[in-house]
């Protein structure tokens, strides 16, 4: 991972994306959008819902899920996928951007470096991070060769312990320590990183995470 010329500040604010900065899940909405465009069929949607149920139950097979997500990317041209993504951002993502989340990012930028860390792949989330004005995105990475998706995941998925590892590696490479880090998230699946940062903030948390927040006296806020 390349070194970045970061601002001279030692505070770091990390934001989860789906159901934290967005009023919904970008990956799930992408699947629904592809179905509307007849890129995937109803079987894909049914399988998708099973994965999301597992995610909320805390039993997601991340490798199986990513292989599933890659199928429509591998089987279509990059030109088509990029055009689809542009329409998806306009019609499915812009309406669910949470203005309170965007305002919080702007506030934090005055004193902190800001990154978004998400389990959703970087093909979908890079333009979403741009909408929030966030340059540094840590996401699950899908391999592209000769302008085509290969079907492989690059490195570790940015999920649970993988998200923690990828964020900590980024911090080390960019000379941040863990003494002044804040992480905003809605999901119980983000517990490894929430427990590791200096200041965890639960944003519109799921039931399991709210329970943890109460137990640990973590701050709880809403962007809704």
Structural class: alpha/beta
Individual helix count: 9
Tell me, rounded to a whole number, the average pLDDT. 94
Indicate the overall shape: globular
- CATH homology-level superfamily: HAD superfamily/HAD-like
Strand arrangement in the largest pleated sheet: 4-3-2-1-5-6-7
Distance between the termini: 34 Å
| Percent helix range | 40-55%
Instruction: Determine Rg (CA atoms, Å).
Output: 17 Å
Q: Outline the low-pLDDT stretches.
A: 1-8
What CATH calls the topology is Rossmann fold
Work out the count of structural domains. 1
Number of strands: 7
> What is the string of SSEs from the N terminus onward?
EHHHHHEHEEHEHEHE
Largest sheet: 7 strands, mixed
The CATH architecture: 3-Layer(aba) Sandwich
Q: Which class in CATH terms?
A: Alpha Beta
Strand content: 15-25%
């Amino acid at each position: 991972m390349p070194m970045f010329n970061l601002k001279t500040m030692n505070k770091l604010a990390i934001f989860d994306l789906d159901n934290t900065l967005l009023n919904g899940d970008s990956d799930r909405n992408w699947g629904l959008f592809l179905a509307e465009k007849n890129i995937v069929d109803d079987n894909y949607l049914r399988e998708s819902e099973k994965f999301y149920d597992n995610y909320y139950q805390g039993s997601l097979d991340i490798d199986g899920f990513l292989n599933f997500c890659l199928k429509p990317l591998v089987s279509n041209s990059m030109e088509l996928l990029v055009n689809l993504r542009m329409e998806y951002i306009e019609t499915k993502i812009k309406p669910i951007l949470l203005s309170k989340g965007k305002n919080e990012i702007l506030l934090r930028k005055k004193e902190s470096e800001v990154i978004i860390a998400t389990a959703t792949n970087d093909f979908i989330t890079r333009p979403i991070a741009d909408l929030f004005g966030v340059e540094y995105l840590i996401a699950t990475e899908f391999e592209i060769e000769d302008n085509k998706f290969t079907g492989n995941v690059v490195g570790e998925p940015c999920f649970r312990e993988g998200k923690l590892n990828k964020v900590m590696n980024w911090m080390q490479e960019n000379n941040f320590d863990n003494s002044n880090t804040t992480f905003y998230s809605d999901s119980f699946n983000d517990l490894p990183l929430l427990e590791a940062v200096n200041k965890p903030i639960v944003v519109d948390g799921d039931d399991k995470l709210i329970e943890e927040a109460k137990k640990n006296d973590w701050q709880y806020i809403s962007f809704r």
